[in-house]
Write a structure and sequence with these properties.
The chain is mainly beta and 287 residues long. The chain is 11% helix and 28% strand. The strands form four sheets. The protein has a nine-stranded mixed beta sheet with strand order 3-2-1-13-10-9-16-4-5. Strand 2 (13-17) and strand 3 form a beta hairpin.
């Protein structure tokens, strides 16, 4: 299934993408796409609904991020060898784990608003892993049974914020609109191997990132197992699994986003995002 939330920010309604590509409304069956819905038994029940029998939504309404009530976003750093190399850092011996604030979440076509005093805003296309059932001290061989589904993530980053004042990466990752998620959540049954997905990103039509999740240093199962040793992963939590090489910081000279730029990015089978970059203004930030 391709699960979506559509409508104005804060007023999103639940939906599915049908086999014909049309958006269908789920409001008669549930009030929103919430973490409790992501349990395996709930997803199986949802899968019994024929999307073609649901009300069809005309036009192209805004899509929000596909899961309401995300509890935490766990980021994985330097998880592709080429990205570690362009960052001038060694390939990690174990996953590099840090967090992005949930207030950064935004939809797959919402504008990315540059923060006040931003100078080094960068892009990072990543595979998002959405947890469906609680994971605590999970063995790697069982880790994928805890996944509800996968989605496209853009770990937008302000490099100067991350490196200045103590080098805390979370500061540069957590600005409002810096967590575009979606367009939809593709349930795990439709992604037989999350390590065989093409992943790419363009800015203004120029392709900067193109790789495969096969090139991860630590695969999806290893990441879930490792993170679950240090924190309990709850339904609705997201692991953003790292970006391949090709970020702006790695260019010579570096290239950073500016107002008017348009990012387009996607992952095989998981859809695409299109994001315009806007200059800072308080009234451009989400409510």
């Amino acid at each position: 299934m391709k699960i979506v939330r559509y409508g104005a920010p804060g007023l999103e309604r639940p939906g599915l993408i049908a086999a014909d590509g049309g958006l269908r409304d789920l409001s008669d069956h549930l009030h929103d796409i919430v973490p409790e819905l992501l349990a395996p038994e709930r997803l199986r029940k949802l899968a019994e609904i024929d999307p073609l029998r649901l009300p069809k939504i005309p036009g192209s309404p805004r899509l929000g991020y596909p899961v309401a009530g995300v509890g935490k976003i766990v980021l994985i750093g330097l998880n592709y060898r080429d990205h570690a190399a362009e960052s001038g850092l060694p390939v990690p011996q174990r996953p590099v784990v840090f967090l992005k604030a949930i207030s950064a979440l935004s939809g797959p076509t919402d504008p990315v608003v540059m923060p006040r005093e931003a100078t080094m805003v960068d892009w990072e296309v990543e595979l998002g892993i959405v947890i469906g059932r609680r994971a605590r001290y999970v063995e790697e061989r069982e880790a994928l049974t805890h996944v509800a589904g996968y989605c496209v993530m853009n770990d937008v980053s302000e490099r100067a914020f991350s490196e200045d004042n103590g080098g805390n990466w979370t500061k540069g990752k957590s600005c409002d609109t810096f967590g575009p998620m979606g367009p939809w959540l593709v349930t795990a049954d439709e992604v037989p191997d999350p390590q065989r997905l093409g992943i790419w990103l363009e800015v203004n039509g120029k392709r900067y990132q193109e790789s495969s999740t096969a090139n991860m240093v630590f695969g999806v199962a290893a990441l879930i197992s490792y993170v679950s040793r240090f924190m309990t992963l709850l339904p609705g939590d997201v692991i953003s699994s790292g970006t391949p090489g090709g970020v702006g910081l790695g260019r010579k000279p570096p290239v950073f986003l500016k107002p008017g730029d348009v990012m387009r990015l996607g992952i095989d089978g998981l859809g695409e995002q299109r994001l315009e970059v806007l200059a800072f203004a308080l009234d451009r930030l989400p409510p």
